[in-house]
Amino acid sequence: MTKKENFLKGFINENPLFVLLLGTCPALAITTTLENALGMGIAFIFVLVMSNTIISLINSFKKLKELIQPVRIAVYIVIIASLVTIVEMLMQAYLPELYNSLGVFISLITVNCIVLGRAEAYASSNKVSDSVIDGISMGLGYTFALIIISLARELLGNGTITIWGNLVINLKGVFEFLHITPISFFTSSAGAFMVLGIILGIMQAIKNSKEAKKQELEKAKKEVK
Amino acid sequence: MKNNLITGLVLSIFALICGLFLSLVNSFTEPVIKERTEQKINDSIMEVCEIYKNNKDTYSIDKESITHEEVDSVYLVKDENGNAVEAIYIVSAKGYASTIQMMISVTKEHKIEKSIVISSQETKGNIKTHDFKMDGKDSLDSFDKLSGSTISSKAVRKCFYTALDLSYEDLK
User: Fold this and answer.
1) How many domains would you assign to chain A?
2) Which of B46, B81, B84, B47 is nearest to B63 (CA)?
């Protein structure tokens, strides 16, 4: 896999949320506003990139790799939990509003399957540079997925898009013009499930249509031969 | 046995290094968090307590020890002679989706002076801006609940009840 392919895989082909269906719990809980999604995404990228880097670095020393082998998962968890706590402390000190808004879900990044999954499946057996790219790719892919869900939920549920702090795009006028009101159901947990389900359905439909076209093309090629 | 000891030692070393990093980050974030918390409480006190806001030289605020589990903090506003003239309570109650924390000031006549919602992550209704019509009241008879947010309103009502109830002990 080239570095470009490694970087791009997290967005669509191996998107952690839309394709691998990992980390769905925080994704459904915090995507009530775009600001929450961005905040969670930044925290997630930091933890994922740092944990991938450190774990890949540890495993690049043969002797150290052998030493931690029996307790590697515990070591990974200690590293990830420390990184998450650092993010939590920094966020509480410098971004208190966002910290209050994300609540317990910052701490829960520790047990997010994506972080531990990438550490065990990728960072532990690849070069440091590739692991960094993998962390950035997966982190951005997850953030991208969070942004899509939060945009749909906030727009349909509140008629607004909260970019950051007081920077809010108010689209309630558009709803009024169309003689409809925002559906608050989308800001609830059930609404989150529905939005995720619809997005997964659309992605599956696109994938199926692409595969069908590919098969038709192959069939046509065979007939020509 | 020896291998187990070595792996245990390796894990301990990793935990120790992580602990050192955490204490380093904590050393510069903790003062900021503490300062921000104190600032937030001071701002809230200024908002709910008119007499202290207008006469800072005459009145003083003392933090009292907590005697009830529903209360997070108790502040007594005292005059020059040290007599308590007003009590400020930080009370919490479980709402619909989060714990609602309120600051409520109660006068010597056991009337609510003012109240504000300090923190709440309730999903329905804007609980922070709603007027529960409790200012100047000494009972919950006139409590105006937020329509569509019954559970959140019940939590707010509980906060008012706790503050009024405790004021009979603190402001004798």
Assistant:
1) 1
2) B84
Is B37's Cβ below 8 Å from some Cβ in A? no
Q: Which two tokens stand for residue B154?
A: 């019940």
Q: Do B14 and A101 touch (CB under 8 A)?
A: no
CA nearest A187 in B: which residue? B123
User: What ipTM describes this predicted complex?
Assistant: 0.75
A window 81-110, beta carbon within 8 A of B: 81-82, 85-86, 89-90, 92-94, 96, 100-101, 103
Residue A73 structural domain: 3-211
| Buried-exposed string B22-33: b where 16+ CB fall within 10 A, e elsewhere | beebeeebeeeb
Q: Is the pLDDT of residue B76 over 80?
A: yes
Q: Is A172 part of a structural domain of the chain?
A: yes
Global confidence as pTM = 0.77
| B13 at A interface, C-beta within 8 A | no
In this complex, is the C-beta atom of A48 within 8 Å of any C-beta atom belonging to chain B? no
Asked whether residue A220 is domain-assigned, the answer is no
Chain A's closest residue to B26, CA to CA, is A89
Give the H/E segment covering residue B2: helix B2-48
Residue from B78, B89, B83 nearest B113 by CA: B89
Nearest by CB to residue A93, choosing from B33, B119, B121, is B33
Q: Which H/E stretch holds residue A164?
A: strand A160-164
| pLDDT over 90, % of chain B | 16
**Alpha-helix residue ranges (DSSP H) falling in chain A:** 3-8, 24-30, 34-60, 62-68, 72-94, 96-102, 113-121, 128-158, 172-177, 189-224
Q: What pLDDT score does B125 carry?
A: 64
